[in-house]
Amino acid sequence: MVVYLFSSLIVILSSAIASTILFPQQPLNCLAIFISLTLFQITIITLTLGAVNLLYPSLLLIGSIALGSFILITLFLNSNKDKLLSISTTHFQKHALPNQKGWILLIAITSIFLFCFGQLIYDLCLQVTFVHPLSWDVVTYHLPSAVTYLQSLGLWKLGNTFSQYPGGNELINLWSLIPLKQDAALGLTSLVLNLGTLLVALLLLRDLKQWKYNLSLYFTFLLFLLIYLSINDTQVIFFDIGRNDVTLAFWVLTGSWAWMKSLQNKKVSFRYPWLFWSGVSFGCALGIKPNAIYYIAGIFAISIYNLITNYSPKIKRKSYLRVFYKILWTWLLPIAMISSFWYLRNLYLLGSFFEDHVVKSGLNLSISRNLFSLEIYKAPNGRLLLFSIFITLLLIILISNNQFRNTNLKQLVKINVISFIAWILTPYSAGYYAGEIIYFHPQLRHGLVYVITVIILMSYLSLTCIRIFFNQKSRNILSIIDNLFHHLHKESDHTNKINYLFISSIAAASVILLLIQVINYNPPRGLPGFSGILFYPSNYRSHVYEWVQENIKNKRILNLGLRSYGLVNFPFSNEVTDAGSPATWRLQENNLQQYDYLAVSVDPFTGKISQELAAFLQAPRGYKIVYSDQLSVVLKRIS
Which ranges does the record mark as transmembrane (predicted)? Predict the structure, then answer.
């Protein structure tokens, strides 16, 4: 525990100091870089140590000291250049802060908003405190993969079928799992990722124009939150502890924001640090999910298009080539360096990036493959998919108009279109398999970047249209609103002292919350949410997970049908290997001799087991039954 807390403290402090160096006068930018630097350091340290099979707690501490020192020394040596990142300070940040009346109004409206979503916030606090992973993917694949890496001290062992997927999300989970040997911090990690994603959404909204008043931006963002939190699928994402969708969305949005910032100033010392951070963010994203390549390809295509359209015979061709090479080195190189390990590992272990059976079934269930099927539009979220197609076409028409001159808005629309294409191309985006049966259910979590960017655009354009309407029909009302906002603000220059206090308070609160959570956490008995085993409604609750946790320690378990995470047993003492579905399992006696226990359940989708497995359970040679109920059985090897 001490090693984990010290490692986390060093990462948090170094990230906080670095962010205030980069953005001494912009608290929102500073906070976003603080969060992303913290997650970046965690990712790089665990990736580096895991690649050389040295995932020891003590080395996490040494790695945090080394990387944190390197980042701070680099920034101190180049502080004059790096401060150029801050030159795009927006108008409201320097001159239109809320006055006392403005703060009272802001607090009152925020309180009403929080009251409306009070139950959601209460449930989220419980989820963060008790850490009960609720997703089948998480307890079957993501967290078991992280435990496999932890037990093998490296990232080279594939524990289950989907361990072939990049493990960037698991790297973040490993940061606390390795030294603590429990999942106490996963709830806070998930909360930070969700809040960080919303913060980047706020930054994207803020950069769409020069906001005259701080509160006008706040009310627009409140409209964004109201829409975002009213969607059931986005609410679920807050509770999806351990899943990689929000992690991917955070890095893609951060990379997109940094890329847009790089276009705002042609000065090299300003542009390329932003472009570099965009590359780092997209590298982290590609190290989490392979579908991040769609976003990268889209951004790269737009960058090349901008380069070509800005071509002028007056400028030497060498200058354009120099810019092109700079993009390659500054943007694509970080992407390749951060993400390539996972794909090279698979190439070495499997002979290919992914096994065909893993990819093919998912591609067949992408939205793009089923776009003209009526069934997908009749399914849950089908109407939202249809609405998304309509909105995307409207936005494309909007930015195609030459009279439309808001450059930042055009760039965000382009990112939105890219994210829509990425969503419909993503495997399993159209639904999921339940055994051999296909269920259409467009997965908004796979299109989270699209959902966020389209809500940003809808919120901004809605208020813009309202303003245009009042400007044409009733300027008196618009004048009254402007005067009201004017009386709720005061002119004020932002000082570095306020920014340092703001970030230091956030850093201190993070450390205190982490300390309280780790000290007070009690691992749950069993696997909450999964004691029913079956996916369809069942009143019967199995106690197989509780029994395994109480009776099996430091053993090798072959798992058929159960969620692996419920069998590893804190402090992750059991080594669990998945053997596929019990409905299709075939006896391989030689393999059985490698395991101390065999844990079996009915197939969670069909409630059945194979005939060969049924025959084996009737007369288990070399094993004896030590636990059984209506849905599961545990056998112990006796020879």
Answer: 6-23, 30-52, 58-77, 103-122, 184-205, 212-231, 237-260, 272-288, 294-311, 323-344, 382-400, 412-435, 447-470, 498-519
Residue 271 has pLDDT above 90, yes or no: no
- What number of other Cβ atoms are within 10 A of residue 107's Cβ? 11
Q: Which residues does 449 contact at the CB level (< 8 Å), separation at least 6?
A: 248, 249, 252, 253, 256, 295, 419, 422, 423
Residue 58 bridge partners (DSSP): none
pLDDT of residue 408: 87
Specify whether the CB–CB gap between 173 and 131 falls below 8 A: no
Tokens linked to 283: 């590298």
| CATH code that applies to domain 544-637 | 3.40.190
Alpha-carbon distance of 141 to 287, in angstroms, equals: 16
**Strand-pair category, 597-601 with 632-637:** antiparallel
User: Considering only CA atoms, which of 94, 86, 408 is closest in space to residue 269?
Assistant: 86
Retrieve residue 183's tokens: 């999942």
| CA–CA separation, 479 and 475 (whole Å) | 6
The pLDDT value recorded for residue 435 is 67
- Band the pLDDT of 222: cuts 50, 70, 90: very high
468-472, 514-518, 594-598: which has the minimum mean pLDDT? 468-472
Tell me if 128 sits within 8 A of 190, measured CB to CB.
yes
How many helices (DSSP H) and strands (DSSP E) are in the chain? Answer: 28, 9
Neighbours of 493 (CB within 10 A): 10
Q: How confident is the model at residue 93 (pLDDT cuts 50, 70, 90)?
A: very low
pLDDT of residue 99: 76
Q: Can you give the residue ranges of every domain in the chain?
A: 2-473+496-505, 544-637
Vertex 132 angle, CA 126 and 138, to 5°: 140
Distance between CA atoms of 626 and 619, rounded to whole angstroms?
14
Q: What is the pLDDT of residue 478?
A: 66
Count CB atoms within 10 A of the CB of residue 442.
25
SS3 143: helix
Q: Is the bond leading into 179 cis (omega within 30 degrees of zero)?
A: no
8 A C-beta contact, residue 62 and residue 223: no
Q: Quick one: tokens of 141? A: 């694949």
- The answer to whether 453 and 197 have CB atoms below 8 angstroms apart is no
Q: Using pLDDT thresholds of 50, 70 and 90, give the confidence band for residue 211.
A: confident
How far is the C-alpha of 136 from the C-alpha of 433, rounded, in Å?
Answer: 13
Q: Compute the distance between CA of residue 342 and CA of residue 246 in angstroms, rounded to an integer.
A: 20
- Quote the CA–CA distance of 607 and 621 in Å, as a whole number: 24
Tokens of 506: 């956030």
| 37: confidence class by pLDDT, cuts 50, 70, 90 | very high
Q: What's the CA gap between 259 and 254, in Å, rounded?
A: 9
Q: Is residue 230 predicted with pLDDT exceeding 80?
A: yes
Q: Please, are residues 120 and 232 in contact by the beta-carbon 8 Å criterion?
A: no
**Model confidence pLDDT, tens digit, residues 285-325:** 999 999 999 999 999 999 888 877 776 666 666 777 777 78
Residue 88 predicted with pLDDT over 50: no
Q: Rounded CA gap, 69 and 13, in Å? A: 11
